[in-house]
UniProtKB/TrEMBL annotation, chains A, B:
PANTHER family xrefs: TRANSCRIPTIONAL REGULATOR, MARR FAMILY (PTHR33164), TRANSCRIPTIONAL REGULATORY PROTEIN (PTHR33164:SF106)
InterPro entries: HTH_MarR-typ, MarR/SlyA-like, WH-like_DNA-bd_sf, WH_DNA-bd_sf
Signal peptide location: none
PROSITE patterns: HTH_MARR_2
Domain of life: Bacteria
Protein name: MarR family transcriptional regulator
Amino acid sequence: MQEQGPEMEIVHLLRAVVVELGAHSARFAQRNGMHPTDVRALIALMDAERAGEEMTAGRLGTALGLNSAGTTALVDRLERAGHVRRVRDERDRRRVTVEVDERAVALGRSHFGPLIGRAVELLGGYDERELAAIRDFLTGVRETAEEDRTGHRAPRPAP
Amino acid sequence: MQEQGPEMEIVHLLRAVVVELGAHSARFAQRNGMHPTDVRALIALMDAERAGEEMTAGRLGTALGLNSAGTTALVDRLERAGHVRRVRDERDRRRVTVEVDERAVALGRSHFGPLIGRAVELLGGYDERELAAIRDFLTGVRETAEEDRTGHRAPRPAP
DNA sequence: GGTATTCTCTCGCTCAGCGAGATAATTGTT
DNA sequence: AACAATTATCTCGCTGAGCGAGAGAATACC
């Protein structure tokens, strides 16, 4: 068994966090009769809403790596459960925008709220330099994974 | 749109990292003709190996949230692809321990290596206090998610 | 020694997601 | 303005991951 520096310990720690948060999300899915993909879809939809963009069925499918048939089935499922609404786009009537129902947002908040609250609480205990370290490290990891996906460097915002 | 403190920004960042690393792992699966669950299984097996524990079929299934039928199918799949070996436990001949093949480890290393290397590189740029902040924050999040799963506080190692 | 328990596997089924292709709306061409 | 080409979503039939029920085999308990 090779001995490694403190860096590898943190890498394994990050991986453990990813696994554990994935399990947390899977628990939310199971408790509410949903599948992991459904939760990923709701997250993508809420992210788009927070960013002020509207999410069409096609863009949602692309974001999740589904083809059009799978996307239709996914939106059917979410709509049947009352978590989203299909809204026909009036400017381009081929498109269907998918809107999250407020009750789905509340459901998510009730499950993820405590965890988020605890994370905020933890972050409250750090000073500016420590917060910057956490932020920069996470940003760096996210950008590296993104670059690997898109095949090119993500544009950095000017300082 | 409510304005939030710097804490929520980091929470969203962590969530983005989880999503992006999940996608990175899904890409590894797809490129090698595997499913997300197969990758999770390999990770669990390698974690157990690093911890010096042997992983039985049953324990693996429990760790992934599968029932026994699904676990058998999973191990069948991994064995057929040559990623693991079934080894009948000689002390308790009901048990089957699952061992990762060295080639699967190499395959994983070739995919995740660059990302891990970049993370280590990033971590090399921080001093002790910053590293401690990153480590403690990730540990805190992991423990909170764990507590939610197990229903009780995880034991903290003495300082 | 016999019964209960534990671990894995088999069988039949459900449903998420895929490939192929249909349908409808938009954009481009002449 | 009619016609073709493109785009967005949906329908149909199929494959395969994972489940429930239960069988088979080894171990633990009394």
